[in-house]
Amino acid sequence: MTTDHRHPVWELCEAGKRLYSQALLDDGLARDESDVDALAPCLLEYALLVPDEDEPGTLRPAMPRIALHRHLRDLENSIAVQHRHIGELADSFSPFLRMATSRLGDSVILLEGKRRIDESIDAAMRTGSGEMLTMQPQSRRTQQDSATGIARMSDFLTRGSRIRTIYTHPTRDDPVIHDLQDHFRAGGRVEVRTVDEVIDRIIIVGTEVAFVPGNPERTSALEIRHPALIMLLRSAFDRLWRYGRPYYDPLETAHEKVSDIQLRIARLMVFEGLQDKDIAAHVGVTVRTVAKHFAALADALGTTNRGQMGYMLAKAGLLDPVDEPER
């Protein structure tokens, strides 16, 4: 009887780890003798082991660097698709929400003005419990905002609640955000992860209420109390959370001179042809910050030509890998 062997590549099974390690050390495996088809079919499914065309019956290991970049690219593509679908879903439902306002009653309420938005969030946190999820595209916090946030969060946490937050990678350099996270780090009930880019600002308090921007300027917000919509927002958050990097874990960089955020900017610049303003919106930083990262990247690579820069990064294996023969 065949057992179910399905698992994602980032949760490689013990047999898979053992056989892949052995293949790397021995430069290959005998397919029949290793019984890889029964013990670790995941290695074949994820192309970590590939048949040798010149030696039938022998499996060769994919080089770890190439395999890593290939699967990272697949994950990034998956996240991009989810981002697009969420945006399309929000756009498609927008006219229906306006049409059905009277029928939804208090399920979706338009909040106008920062003061009213803040008061509604405060009220939700004072009465809510369980778990709060927040997503922030970029930091615009001042020290005063940080103090207000600490007071809000402290009161919420006293009721045995938890908080999970997703920021973009550049917020790791924001001292206000860093101080805020340090304040709650010891308690263990506030978790923060960072990703390349997020959808938009989202606040979800328990399973009862969520807040999303009502317009691009964020001068209005929607207070959502419809269970199906809250479930959809929680699902979107959890998908991004799985791909996030814990706040206090260092970001892995592919080269000591090129940071993770610089690589992200380079990918948007080279592969998607975006200009600085659009890159800033994607990554969650200012146009000036994009220019600074571009200057640092140009200095590290010794060129300001964007085409040449993309070629040099790809050749060095810092962007999506070039096709290289796998042994």
Task: Describe this protein's structure.
The protein is α+β, with helices and mostly antiparallel strands. It folds into 3 domains: 9-62, no CATH class; 70-246, Endonuclease Chain A (Endonuclease, Chain A, 2-Layer Sandwich); 254-315, Winged helix-like DNA-binding domain superfamily/Winged helix DNA-binding domain (Arc Repressor Mutant, subunit A, Orthogonal Bundle). The protein has 14 helices and 11 strands. It has helices spanning 14-26, 31-34, 36-39, 42-45, 64-99, 101-104, 114-127, 143-157, 175-185, 227-243, 260-270, 276-283, 287-301, 306-315, and strands at 29-30, 49-51, 58-61, 108-112, 131-135, 162-168, 190-195, 202-205, 209-213, 220-224, 245-246. The strands form 2 sheets. It has an 8-stranded mixed beta sheet with strand order 4-10-9-8-5-6-7-11, with helices on both faces. A 3-stranded antiparallel beta sheet has the order 1-3-2. Strand 8 and strand 9 form a beta hairpin. Helix 11 packs across helix 14. The longest helix is centred in the N-terminal third of the chain and has 36 residues, at 64-99. The radius of gyration is 23 Å and the shape is globular. The two termini are 33 Å apart. Mean pLDDT is 80; it is low at 321-327. GO terms for molecular function: DNA binding. This is Helix-turn-helix transcriptional regulator.
